[in-house]
Amino acid sequence: MKFPTFTRCQFCGAIPAEGEKLSRTHIWPKWLNTTLEHHPSCDVECIDRPDFSKITKTRKTRHQDIFTIQPRIACIQCNGGWMNNIEQGVLDFLKPIISNDWPQFLTPEQIRKLSLWLALICMNAELASPLYNTITQADRDYIRNKEDLPRGWSIIVAKNHGSYWRKRRGYHNYPALPLSINRRLSGTVDNPTYDKQITTFGIGPLFAQVVSGQDFNFVAHHFFAAQKFGFGILFPRHDSSPLDTTQLHNLSDHQINDLNSQIPWFLHV
């Protein structure tokens, strides 16, 4: 896969000095790849939907492990600074989870840190993709400056009980859907404007799904549907209570496939 070529940091806008390049950014940290080394490498599924009204899709399967790619998308200062801080912030409690040693509770601070880490992975992975980008510069600025997420994100977790999704990522890229028909997004039939995405992760025994977009109704549907069905809500959180991991759903491969289906599962519940 050929990565997009950037001449400036996609987070702070810095331009490398003459003769230098942007730093290589691990989509996933090295320790995570080492922890999951006994699982087979994944094919990253990119599902592009140019016309939501038709029950058709274009599936692009990349025969490359998302856990190993290192695109040049960020400057040394961002990569080794706040981005590294987000990664280091989840290390202590995420390593045991990936080894299937779950704590009984995730504290509010751990929930916040895990949300930031998953969102940053989505940002990095999307920048490395030749497909249309949906995550805005404003969102990247927000996470960089405030160490928090803005409105327009919904992140949920559960337990992965299957085997197919032990090391896998499914990425969905949406144009404007009927819910956002009045948004007046620019674009043509041949070159639609994309304003929302769904990324589904299987990371060892951890299942996570991240929805983001400029269409807040779309994102809210995901949040309320996940809440209704008892998924673990990481973001947005409306209280300061811990997350009881003993109550998380144990999902099979079939169930995760349904959650990663062509038509968003949460628009029909």
State the total count of DSSP E strands.
12
What fraction of residues sit in β-strands? 15-25%
Helix and strand pattern: EHEEEHHEHHEEEEHEEEH
Uncertain segments: 179-187
Total domain units: 1
Distance between the amino and carboxyl termini:
37 Å
Structural class estimated from helices and strands = alpha+beta
Gross geometry: globular
Number of helices: 7
Organism: Acetobacter ascendens
Protein name: HNH endonuclease
Give an overview in words.
The protein has 269 residues and is α+β, with helices and mostly antiparallel strands. It has one domain. 29% of the residues lie in helices and 22% in strands. It has seven helices and twelve strands. The protein has helices at residues 30-35, 76-80, 82-98, 108-127, 137-146, 216-228, 253-259, and strands at 23-24, 44-48, 58-62, 72-74, 105-106, 153-160, 167-175, 194-203, 206-213, 232-235, 243-244, 250-251. The strands form three sheets. Strands 2, 3, 6, 7, 8, 9, 10 and 12 form an eight-stranded mixed beta sheet that branches. α3 (82-98) packs across α4. The longest helix is centred in the middle third of the chain and has 20 residues, at 108-127. Residues 179-187 have low confidence and may be disordered. It comes from Acetobacter ascendens. This is HNH endonuclease.
